[in-house]
Amino acid sequence: MRPIAQHEALAQAYQGITDVVRGLDDADLQRPTRCHGWLVADLLFHVLCDAQRALVALASPADGPPDVDDVSYWRSFPPGGDDTRHTWWARRSAAAFDRPTGVVRLWCDTAPAAVRAATAADPAAHVTTQGHVLRVADLLATLTTEAGVHHLDLTLDLPDAPPPGPLATAVAVATMDGLLSDDAVRPAAWSDADYLLKATGRTPLTDRDRWELGEAAGWFPLLG
Question: CATH classification of 6-217, choosing from 1.20.1110.10, 1.20.120.450, 3.40.190.10, 1.10.3720.10?
Answer without folding.
Answer: 1.20.120.450
